[in-house]
Automatic annotation (TrEMBL), chain A:
<dbReference type="GO" id="GO:0005743">
    <property type="term" value="C:mitochondrial inner membrane"/>
</dbReference>
<dbReference type="InterPro" id="IPR023184">
    <property type="entry name" value="Ubol_cytC_Rdtase_hinge_dom"/>
</dbReference>
<dbReference type="GO" id="GO:0006122">
    <property type="term" value="P:mitochondrial electron transport, ubiquinol to cytochrome c"/>
</dbReference>
<dbReference type="InterPro" id="IPR036811">
    <property type="entry name" value="Ubol_cytC_Rdtase_hinge_dom_sf"/>
</dbReference>
<dbReference type="InterPro" id="IPR003422">
    <property type="entry name" value="Cyt_b-c1_6"/>
</dbReference>
<feature type="compositionally biased region" description="Low complexity">
    <location>
        <begin position="15"/>
        <end position="26"/>
    </location>
</feature>
<keyword id="KW-0679">Respiratory chain</keyword>
<keyword id="KW-0496">Mitochondrion</keyword>
<feature type="domain" description="Ubiquinol-cytochrome C reductase hinge">
    <location>
        <begin position="68"/>
        <end position="137"/>
    </location>
</feature>
From TrEMBL, chain B:
<keyword id="KW-1133">Transmembrane helix</keyword>
<feature type="compositionally biased region" description="Acidic residues">
    <location>
        <begin position="137"/>
        <end position="149"/>
    </location>
</feature>
<feature type="binding site" description="covalent">
    <location>
        <position position="232"/>
    </location>
    <ligand>
        <name>heme c</name>
    </ligand>
</feature>
<keyword id="KW-0472">Membrane</keyword>
<keyword id="KW-0999">Mitochondrion inner membrane</keyword>
<dbReference type="GO" id="GO:0020037">
    <property type="term" value="F:heme binding"/>
</dbReference>
<dbReference type="InterPro" id="IPR021157">
    <property type="entry name" value="Cyt_c1_TM_anchor_C"/>
</dbReference>
<dbReference type="GO" id="GO:0005743">
    <property type="term" value="C:mitochondrial inner membrane"/>
</dbReference>
<keyword id="KW-0479">Metal-binding</keyword>
Length: 137, 318
């Protein structure tokens, strides 16, 4: 009987796959995780979790500092031709506002560069979004 | 032939124009009014002017919408990111969910509760039964009253909900300078922009606020938060957590994972829902195709019938 059901399941593409296969490696790590974190309080849960991960994968260690791809792409995008307009306005605004605050001339209306910052950030993010998603897992 | 005759008729009409007008005017009113078409033109012109003028006045009153909010008060609208799980036929990336839960547990959970998620719902989604049980047992929950009526503590079970960092909202406010860290169970559904907003908010803290921007005491500048002043400081920094699958824990990677996890927390039924939607479309289209064929079959005698009329022979012998 089992033979026929196996045959049937292997022949049908909609037969269900059980996720238990991956649990082998998962259960191995469980006692360590449970035991170690159980000793500590809830407050230093973070530290203990980091510890037991260290033991599992020593080969993943990287010496150099990680660079966030988002920052890289956004910087590139801000300098790109696409965002030259907002960048120009933002830089000009920063120059104007910092100049006005340094000259101590309180007569003019107080100004901020939030709007210019928004336009620049919007442009940079629009440009960086697809690149970032391609880079992230 | 036809064109020529109509031309002739038109020419005749022009020639007889004056006669016709006078005739018609004479038939309706006095000859004096008929003599001044100026007044008719004036009336028409005035009516048109009133019509256009009233429309213009209405647009002047109600047409343009007033925007009372400045862009800073609105907040920067988040960029649309191409979330894979947002596509019609894609599920959550469950490895990302597992990483996202790790980020929540190690980072977010110190301030934010996730009170609608029990440990049992993690089983088969991010963790195995044994892992989820072990995590639940790390916490203490109130047990049933014992014989003396005292409530003792017991280790957690799968059916227990994730513990909240604060006992109530007032305690949360007191610990956070008056600001309440919202519960994250439904936060993706509860915020305009959903995943894009959460991701943008988490990664959007600039190194310093733009020139001239006023940031209140105890607040931080975040362009995506309406008003730009948010009580939560930037929390995600590179290598804050160490992923067990070796994924480089950059700020944006952690933000992406935790956002996807929070989307799962808000919509745990999404994978099943999409599967059900596919079933509905398949069965519905099959039934529709069937109904088309049945209709053709049922109508075939009517569509293929032929009505013949044979007139009687005229002029023949009767």
């Amino acid at each position: 009987m089992g033979f026929f059901t196996d045959l049937w399941e292997s022949a049908t593409p909609w037969s269900s796959a059980e996720a238990e296969a991956v649990s082998g490696s998962g259960t191995d790590s469980t006692p360590a995780q449970g035991g170690e974190a159980g000793e500590g309080e809830a407050a230093d849960k973070n530290a203990s979790d980091n510890k037991d991960d260290d033991a599992e994968e020593p080969e993943e260690e990287e010496e150099e500092e990680l660079e966030d791809p988002q920052e890289k792409f956004q910087e590139e995008c801000k300098e790109s031709k696409q965002c030259s307009g907002p960048k120009h306005h933002f830089d000009e605004c920063v120059e104007r506002v910092t100049g006005a605050s340094e000259s101590d001339d309180k007569k003019g209306p107080s100004e901020d560069c939030v709007e210019e910052f928004f336009h620049l950030a919007h442009c940079a993010n629009e440009c960086a979004a697809p690149k970032l998603w391609a880079a992230l897992k | 032939m036809l064109a020529r005759s109509s031309c002739l008729r038109a020419a005749g009409a022009i020639r007889n124009g004056a006669v016709t007008v006078s005739k018609r005017a004479a038939s309706t009113s006095t000859t004096e009014a008929a003599a001044s078409p100026f007044r008719l033109n004036l009336a028409g012109g005035a009516a048109t002017a009133v019509a256009i003028g009233s429309a213009a006045w209405y647009y002047h009153l109600y047409g343009p919408t007033a925007h009372a909010m400045t862009p800073a008060e609105e907040g920067l609208h988040p960029t649309k990111y191409p979330w894979v799980h947002g596509e019609y036929l894609k599920t959550f990336d469950h490895q990302a969910l597992r990483r996202g839960f790790q980020v929540y547990r190690e980072v977010c959970s110190s301030c934010h509760s996730l009170s609608r998620i029990p440990y049992r719902s993690l089983v088969g989604v991010t963790h195995t039964v044994d892992e989820a049980k072990a995590m639940a047992e790390e916490n203490e929950y109130d047990s049933e009253p014992n014989d003396q009526g005292d409530i003792e503590k017991r280790p957690g079970k799968l059916s227990d909900y994730l513990p909240s960092p604060y006992t109530n909202d007032e305690a949360a406010r007191a610990a956070n300078n008056g600001a309440l860290p919202p519960d994250l169970s439904l936060i993706v559904k509860a915020r305009h922009g959903g995943c894009d907003y959460i991701f943008s908010l988490l990664t959007g803290y600039p190194e310093e606020p733009p020139a001239g921007a006023v940031v209140q005491e105890g607040l931080n500048f975040n362009p995506y938060f309406p008003g730009t002043g948010i009580a939560m400081a930037r929390v995600l920094y590179n290598e804050l957590v160490e992923y067990e699958d070796g994924t480089p824990a950059t700020t944006s990677q952690m933000a992406k994972d935790v956002t996807e996890f929070l989307n799962w927390a808000a919509e745990p039924e999404m994978d099943q829902r999409k599967k059900m939607g596919m079933k509905v479309i398949i069965i519905g289209s099959a039934l529709f195709a069937l109904s088309v064929w049945v209709k053709r079959y049922k109508w075939s005698p009517i569509k293929t019938r032929k009505i013949a009329y044979n007139p009687p022979q005229m002029g023949g012998k009767h």
